[in-house]
Inverse folding.
């Protein structure tokens, strides 16, 4: 059975938790490696006050001993510091103690109602209310909040640690916010990736980063929110992950599910993506070269590292579009669920933009899909077993795709 994971937790509950089942034994893990990813998810100019309250840190409850995984379920927990303000509202067995919660660190919003009856257009509020039969939208908001993505990033950190054992690195950067930016789409070096994480919007080009910050400030003044585009890349990916033989084994399909499952993601493309639709075939497809000295070479990578639903040995490149955050301090036209009368949707605490953070969440999900594909291809309950299978596969590739 392949690896799987589940997360649980509400935005203002005591904690987020995740359980990873089937993770191989003997993979070295450090808390710093996980906390580093959690801190990267908290980055980004234009985040809301919640990010000034939280200092996400992992606590490992099971599955890791003396700094290595045990093969047993890994359970991780990330506490919500903000819970101290919400414990009387989120209690499992007693009704909310107060009608409002006073927020901290939020200049634009002092309090929010514990009971919310006017759905915010664009959020899960109305569709979630229809589905789960609530007029108190707090029951939907709490789990729909992108706070849950902290747990995914914790899980992704484990996937990254596994992939690092095989020289696979997953990174990301922002190319556009609010229509400002460019279409850059190359993988980065580790130094370039570190520089990106120093940028206020996690962009490669400092001039464009400054223009994106300006766009965020202009949006703040107008009580607007912004979306944008980010690139996720993976280097060192071996050929042969995924498969052409069945629809649900295609790795581009699996990656699409994983990245589209991040709140706010509305578009996704691999390599040349939508631009490729306008090219003729001879412009689109990456020529194949081989020399005994350099092996297989592809002078271009319009395929984004995937052909036939299988990784082809080139860097994986995908680009995702995130819509503007649907919580607006100006409020959007809506209807009160109780009175069915027109009413402006209220604000919840939110970000002006979360594109830089979404890139980090997408890295985690891409790393997860690659790690699952690794385990499916190379098998094994332990890291040494995986390594033996991987090394023998690589030797075979050097000899030729049929291993002869
Ligand atoms: C987020 C936590 C959330 C928001 C944001 C991201 O905190 P809260 O639930 O207290 O509002 O700051 O979530 C959204 C903008 C959203 O639409 O879900 C986080 O930890 O990233």
């Amino acid at each position: 059975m392949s690896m799987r994971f589940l997360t649980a937790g509400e935005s203002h509950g005591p904690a987020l938790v995740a359980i990873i089942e089937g993770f191989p034994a003997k993979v070295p893990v450090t808390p710093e490696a996980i906390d580093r990813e959690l801190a990267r998810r908290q980055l980004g100019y234009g985040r809301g006050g919640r990010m000034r309250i939280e200092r996400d840190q992992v606590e490992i409850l099971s599955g890791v001993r003396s700094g290595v995984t045990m093969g047993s379920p890994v359970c991780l927990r990330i506490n919500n510091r903000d819970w101290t303000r919400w414990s009387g509202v989120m209690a499992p067995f007693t009704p909310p103690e107060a009608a409002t919660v006073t927020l901290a660190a939020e200049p634009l919003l002092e309090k929010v109602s514990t009971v919310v009856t006017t759905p915010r257009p664009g959020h899960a509020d109305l569709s979630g209310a229809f589905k789960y039969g609530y007029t108190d939208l707090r029951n939907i908001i709490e789990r729909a909040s992108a706070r849950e993505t902290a747990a995914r990033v914790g899980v992704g950190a484990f996937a990254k640690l596994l992939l690092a054992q095989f020289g696979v690195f997953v990174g990301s950067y922002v190319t556009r916010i609010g229509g400002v930016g460019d279409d850059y789409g190359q993988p980065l070096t580790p130094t370039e990736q570190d520089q990106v994480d120093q940028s206020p919007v996690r962009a490669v080009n400092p001039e464009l980063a400054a223009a994106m910050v300006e766009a965020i400030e202009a949006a703040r003044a107008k009580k607007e929110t912004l979306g944008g585009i980010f690139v996720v890349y993976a280097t060192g990916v071996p050929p042969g992950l995924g498969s052409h033989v069945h629809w649900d084994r295609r790795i581009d399909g699996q990656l699409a599910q994983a990245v589209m499952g991040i709140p706010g993601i509305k578009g996704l493309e691999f390599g040349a993506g939508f631009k490729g639709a306008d090219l003729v075939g001879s412009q689109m497809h990456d020529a194949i070269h081989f020399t005994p000295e350099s092996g297989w070479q592809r002078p271009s990578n319009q395929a984004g590292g995937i052909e036939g639903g299988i990784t082809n040995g080139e860097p994986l490149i995908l680009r995702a579009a995130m819509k503007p955050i649907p919580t607006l301090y100006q409020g959007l036209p809506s209807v009160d669920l109780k009175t069915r009368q027109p009413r402006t949707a209220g604000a919840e605490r939110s970000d002006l933009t979360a594109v830089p953070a979404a890139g980090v969440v997408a890295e985690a999900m891409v790393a997860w899909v690659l790690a699952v594909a690794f385990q499916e291809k190379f098998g094994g309950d332990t890291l040494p077993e995986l390594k033996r299978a991987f090394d023998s596969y690589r030797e075979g590739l050097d000899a030729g795709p049929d291993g002869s």
